[in-house]
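Shipment paperwork, digital attachment
Item: protein structure file
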Amino acid sequence: MDIKQLKFLVALDETRHFGQAAARCHITQPTLSMRLRNLEEELDLPLVNRGQRFEGFTAPGERVLAWARTVLAAYDGLHAEAAACRGHLVGTLRLGVVPLSSFDPLALMRHMHQLHPNLRFELSSLSSEQVLEQLASNQLDLGVSYIERLDNERFESLSLAQTQMGLLYDHRYFNFSDQPLSWEALIELPLGLLTSGMHFRQSIDHNFHSRGLSPKPLLQTDAVHQLLQAVHGGFCCAIMPLEGGLEKLTDDLRLHPIADAQTLARLGLIMRRNAPRSALAEACFVEYRTIIGGS
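Attachment content:
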């Protein structure tokens, strides 16, 4: 067994396709299949269900896959740790952020890249549940998610400022006074909202319902980019994080404050407590604490 075989196994899980996994690993498909069969023979276990195409992992394969991820994380962590001991940070920081977060990952990435030019970044938009799951399984180094029910024995967190909400609109189609908008005024607008069940939507619904209001959104979607496209096209307005910087995406977007508008739960920068924990995660966690402490 060697580290490449474990990388091939993880690549197959992430692509769910033999050809795509081989392309990602820069080898031919027959080579990938042969190396995975060699791994199965060495472990004396069937790992992959094969048919005309990839059909998933066997039950033993799923368990071996979890260990493969842990071994690869430790392998990458070892190299990162050695580089950190030499005064450098190298490798890829894997960061997962919940949709419509007021957290600006660009500020952290820019800061870390200036300090450590060889550092690379992998940024994912995930649900709050996915962030914690992938932190626990070492698929992420850091996460930004809601911390109201965080397991503090498993995760360490750095509380972020409460998320304030505003109305995102295209000024070519809508115009508002300088005063913050009331929730009553929002009811009269064509609103685009995330679908029910998403954390940010729950805060929006709470703000409406606590005032005896029932919004009737013109558009509901689970895709933030589609919501932004609808706003930019003048189809609707959308309730968004006030400090998320979304109005900077084009010259036509504006973000207007809403009176008494904040999310139900506070966000936090989260890192797993248990080993293996990468030097990248620890360094970025410390640096971000410094950033917000000095701001």
